[in-house]
Amino acid sequence: MPDVINRIQLHNVTKRFGFGDTEHVALDNVSLTINKGEFIAIMGPSGCGKTTLLNLIGLLDQPTEGEYYLDDTAVDNLNPRRHAKIRSRQIGFVFQNFNLIPRLNVIDNVALPLTYTGMSKTKRLQEASRILKTFHLGEREYYLPHQLSGGQTQRVAIARALVNNPSIILADEPTGNLDSKTSHIIMEELADIHRRGNTIIMVTHNPDLTSYASRIITMLDGKIDTDSTKNKAAPFKKQLNIAKSNKKPAPRQTTKKSTKKPSGRSKK
Ligand SMILES: Nc1ncnc2c1ncn2[C@@H]1O[C@H](COP(=O)(O)OP(=O)(O)OP(=O)(O)O)[C@@H](O)[C@H]1O
Ligand SMILES: [Mg+2]
Known about the structure:
CATH superfamily of the domain at 39-51 and 81-247: P-loop containing nucleotide triphosphate hydrolases
Number of helices: 7
CATH architecture of the domain at 39-51 and 81-247: 3-Layer(aba) Sandwich
Bound molecules: adenosine-5'-triphosphate, magnesium ion
Structural class: alpha/beta
Radius of gyration: 20 Å
Order of helices and strands: EEEHEEHEHHHEHEEEH
């Protein structure tokens, strides 16, 4: 596997959870190609499969059906050790709930992704310290996660995602419950990483944040609903409107009932 991944490709990927009566199709025959340097925003209602998609792309989970390629390598059937190796060299995660380890201080949390790279412990801590300084968290290295503000916690989570210098960053609602000012600071940091040529795939519920993206994908019931790439200023504005109009149905739970037609309106 080369140092930089130029193309992520999913072919007819389905992910099912559970069996029999409890079976749930979280991803339904999804095909998707993502090229190096794209900044993708994924939107859609709760439960539509966004995190599942991110976990599959990040090799934290495997598809039930379909194929997954990183450049020309089929990665869906590799063993967990190979997956861990690819992750530790190529992929950075910002999880939906941050996933900082509560009993580890900030610097140890940030150094964690370097554990499997063969670096010495001293070097790992140096690297973690260096990236924390760039996020203005140098003075918080020895704090525990519960001693940080929401914005600081999120910056630590992003620092941890970037410490291994990944070419792909997967961010699941990176600005979760942050106020709009802190959200934009975090987004500027992601935009900067994008400008340096990295690929960013970000899940968000906030249509305002799609303005940072070069491509907006909306999902519905485990499928890709819309997929639009920003080329020029004008079409982009249109895309923002599309994204906004998609916001309205977002809070509703998509159940079969919602597609039921009102009674008494049979066409004859
Ligand atoms: N490990 C699992 N076991 C069983 N079902 C799961 C599992 N993970 C996800 N699901 C189901 O798959 C569907 C998609 O979940 P997913 O977490 O991808 O949604 P999401 O779009 O990220 O939602 P949200 O916006 O709330 O984070 C949900 O119905 C969820 O209950
Ligand atoms: Mg999710």
